[in-house]
Amino acid sequence: MPDAHQGSAGSGAAAADTPAPRQGAPVSAEARADERRFRLYTAVVLAVGVLAVATVSSWLPFEGSVHLWWIGPLLALAFLGAEQLGVNVDVRSGISWTISFTEIPLVIGFFVAPFEVVLAAHVVAGVTTLLARKVTGRVLYNAGAFLIEVTSAFAVAGLVKQVLGGPEDMPWLAALAGTLTAPLASTLLAMAAVRVLRRRMRVGTVLRLAGRILVVGFVNASAGLTGYLVISKTPDAWPIVLAVSLGLVALYWAYSDLLREQRDMEALSDVSLMVARSDHQAAARPAARAGELDLGVDFGEWSGIAERIKDQLAAARVVLRLRLEPDQPMREVVVGEELPDGRLRPDDPFLRLPGAHVRHLRITEANPEVRGALSDRGAQEALVVPLRSANQLLGVVEAHDRLSRWRGFGKYDVQLLGTMASHLATALDNRRLLATLRHDAYHDPLTGLLNRPGFRQIAAEPLRDREQSVVLRVDLDVFSTVSDALGYAWADRMVVAAGKRIRDVLGPEVPLARLEGASFAALLVDHSVEQAHEVAERLRAEASEPYLVDRLTVEANAMVGYASTAVEEHEELDVDGLLQRADMAVRATRGGEEVRGYVPSMGQIFLRRFQMVTQFRQALEDGQVSVHYQPKVSLPGKHVVGVEALVRWQHPEFGRVDPDEFVPAVEAAGLVGALTSFVLDKALDRVRRWLDEGLEISVAVNLSVRNLADEEFPAKVAAALGRFDVPPELLTFELTESGVMADPQRALPILRELHGLGIVLAVDDFGTGYSSLAYLRQLPVDQVKIDKSFVLGMGTDLGDLAVVRSIVELGHSLGLTVVAEGVEDDVARDQLEAMGCDVAQGYLISRPLSEERLEAWLQARTARSLGHRSETVLTLLT
Questions:
Q1: Does domain 279-442 have CATH number 3.30.420.40?
Q2: Which InterPro entries match (predicted)?
Q3: Which of 142, 516, 526, 868 gets the highest tally of CB atoms within 10 A of its CB?
């Protein structure tokens, strides 16, 4: 028999899940609108029921006997008993199919009692059952449905009786037709309620329900009708009828278990598929910002999972609580009724439940703490299961108040929720592992900031959306120095401190990455070039503040370069392109200008440098690179004592390239060995030809710091001297003091080995670096060259004059030859001569000359003295 109370219907009838809101629970505007519509629908159902009762009563007047007063209470008890033996099968959230046996007392009622008695018995039994189950939200609707069910049943039975024209007693066929009408009427009412509440049911689901209603109703009605006819004809046959009825109940119960198991498997499959889809979507998410562990949690996806659990358990509410990060509060997903207080307490006792098994908690049986938790949720009972992995709490799943007319949550619900919770715990654990792997892949392990791939991924979206963006690059220049002096541990601490400083300036929302070493990159979205420059200045000032490292105060210098998408709007730039341009801007910082913005000309400069580096070897082979020579003369004798070999490059596209431009690029590219070998061979060949002409002129070749790092360099030089048969004392190597002091422990053995070959060693640009006298005494050098900046300033700056005098005196006190370069006028030459300087070099004597011009210069300005070769000199004509 149908019973359209909240969420269930007898014999297959279905009704909407619309329980009255709990006291104190917040109600949404949509829920209030649904409630108003359902109240109107209830009034219509009740009015139609009363009208139907009046119509059928006038058509089928009461003809009972007062001596049969006991039939009414007996039928009411029969209806109550049939209701208690019902088997509830959930169809979907709030819609269930109840296999009850109310058709049996109804079909018997057609034979033993009039319409009014059967109606009263059914209504009293139904309302009593609802009140006993504390289902008070839909009593009026269900009462109206009871009236319509019974009146429609008797109306159809009466019509069939008239058509058959049978005897005064009710024909069995009419009773059967009337009994089948009741569940069909209940189904129509329930489907109308679904539409009123704007819930959706597929047509196929409705048709399957209707088919099951007819089948089950026919079986129940047939069993009741058969039993009545057998007992009325053969009173002693009631044991057989009872046995058949018990078998039928067992059959229904087994069938309901089979259906429940099938639906549980479908629900598990649905949840597994939803979790798999969410995992796939999580894997495709971009990198999280620095310091965030992105679990890829889309709460829309988890709401769908919670909704599926709610559907399967027919619960009033499901709460899914997830801990996304360690030591962080739970995030909540609530489907169904809203929580009375909006959110649950952080110290909720359900979060302290041990283990990972399902608890079935009832407010009537729980301890005070659990009763309080259930009361906070406005629930009478709950299924609660913690989600754990390796004893770590990942979350909690709660299901509140089963929407069933007969019972609360049962063992099947406990088993199902436990299995689903196991799936969810595994999915969360896998997602945390995936999030950890993704975090490690896109973040720097030292600082926790983004790394280059992570920065590239984070910055891709705003650049793709064509937002005006600026990429800044910040470089600290003391990382390698701290690493060499104190070790990488302290250098790493300085990098961490620098990252925190930069983060404090930029704020938590700006993507910040550590690229490598002590280099950082940041993305400013919706910033103009002027705004970016201001930010860059603040970054440079903050990052350049001294750092406390191992009880030492380390002075740091930061360079900041930035590149904006607004510089060349017609060109679409990606992250790598902006990073490259910001790097160019950093490398373009010179002479106190520590903040530079990228301009298109920088790209041309670096492209030119790249071309020069890649073409240099070929240029050596093609004769584009040559060696020029600048003479040196002794003071005061004015004898030509040597020349300095200077490299020159005549590029076919760029023309004459300045050595200050291409030599650093060649050195940075690791090609300085080839350059030094080329110049050395040219210089020694020139000396050999002078020797063949009877002249002893030494040649000076500049060395790079990279030459001093090559342990095989002395052997290469010795081989070259032997190949050209040049005495080693006619070869001078000039090296800057900064080059030697960059790594004195590594350079000193190389210098000693070269000096041991008899080669003359000179310290170039003396006075401009940071060498100490102690190291100068240790160096196996023969000459010091006074930097030309001091020589040029002697005539106007007494300080420069004092420096030059001090260097001359210092050099002589150490037994060194002193060479002054940059001599451009007679006054400077005379001053140097008066100080006792040994050798002069500069434009006053000669500019650097090619081999041909040098020969002409020597012929025009010098006279050759005759004699043995060892005594041959070149004297400068006055």
A1: no
A2: Cyclic-di-GMP_PDE-like, EAL_dom, EAL_sf, GAF, GAF-like_dom_sf, GGDEF_dom, Nucleotide_cyclase, Rev_trsase/Diguanyl_cyclase
A3: 142
CATH number belonging to the domain at 452-598, selected among 3.30.750.24, 3.30.430.20, 3.40.50.1110, 3.30.70.270: 3.30.70.270
The CATH number assigned to the domain with range 609-860 reads 3.20.20.450
The angle subtended at Cα 825 by Cα 824 and Cα 828, nearest 5°, is 95
- Cα 167–Cα 170–Cα 175 angle in degrees, nearest 5: 140
What is the SS3 assignment for 564?
strand
Q: What gap in Å lies between CA 696 and CA 658, rounded to an integer?
A: 30
CA distances, 416 to each of 139, 333, 389, 859 (Å): 31, 20, 19, 107
Phi-psi region of 825 (alpha: psi -120 to 50; beta: other; left: phi over 0): beta
Q: Which helix (H) or strand (E) holds 329?
A: none
Give the pLDDT mean for 698-708: 90
Pick from 94, 138, 454, 432: which is nearest to 296 by CA? 432
pLDDT classification of 673: cutoffs 50, 70, 90 = confident
Number of helices (H), then strands (E), in the chain: 27, 25
The residues, any chain, with a CB within 8 Å of residue 196's CB and separated by 6 or more, are: 16, 37, 38, 41
Q: How far apart are CA 437 and CA 313, in angstroms?
A: 35
Residues sharing a CB contact under 8 Å with residue 557, sequence separation 6 or more, in sequence order: 476, 477, 478, 544, 594
Shortest CA distance to 400 belongs to which of 321, 302, 299?
Answer: 321
Beta carbons of 119 and 147 less than 8 angstroms apart: yes
How many percent of the chain have pLDDT more than 70? 76
- Please tell me the total number of residues recorded for the chain in this structure: 878
Q: What would the pLDDT profile of 637-653 be if each residue is shown by its tens digit?
A: 888 999 999 999 898 88
Q: Hey, which bits of 219-324 come out as E strands?
A: 315-322
Q: Which of 145, 100, 139, 137 lies closest to 119, judged by CA?
A: 145
Residues 207-228 pLDDT 10s: 777 777 777 778 777 777 777 7
The phi and psi torsions of 90 (rounded to 5 degrees) equal -75, 135
Q: Which tens digit of pLDDT belongs to each residue from 87-141?
A: 555 544 444 555 567 888 888 888 888 888 888 888 888 888 777 766 666 778 8
54 vs 501: CA distance, rounded Å: 86
Spatial strand order in the sheet of 381-389? 331-336, 315-322, 392-402, 381-389, 359-362
| 616-641 as b/e: b if 16+ CB within 10 A | beebbeeebbebbbbbbbbbeebbbb
pTM (global) more than 0.70: no
Query: Do 700 and 735 touch, CB atoms closer than 8 A?
Result: no
Instruction: Give the separation between CA 640 and CA 526, rounded to whole angstroms.
Output: 66
| 282 pLDDT more than 70 | no
| 850/484 Cα distance (integer angstroms) | 43
- For residues 818 and 835, give the distance between their C-alpha atoms in angstroms, rounded to a whole number: 11
Query: Exposed (0-12), middle (13-18) or buried (19+): which is 112, by Cβ within 10 Å?
Result: middle
Residue 66 reports pLDDT greater than 50: no
Architecture of the domain made up of 29-233: Orthogonal Bundle (1.10)
**What residue spans define the domains of the chain?**
29-233, 279-442, 452-598, 609-860
DSSP 170: P
Strand locations in 214-342 (E): 315-322, 331-336
Count of CB atoms within 10 A of residue 269's CB?
Answer: 10
Report CA 291 to chain centroid distance, whole Å.
10
Task: Please state, as a whole number, how many other Cβ atoms lie within 10 Å of the Cβ of residue 221.
Answer: 27
- Alpha carbon separation from 782 to 127, 643, 761, 806, 829 (Å, rounded): 118, 16, 5, 17, 22
Evaluate whether 650 touches 706 at the Cβ level (below 8 Å): no
Show Cβ contacts of residue 521 under 8 Å, excluding neighbours closer than 6 positions. Answer: 452, 455, 471, 472, 473, 474, 512, 513, 515, 579, 582
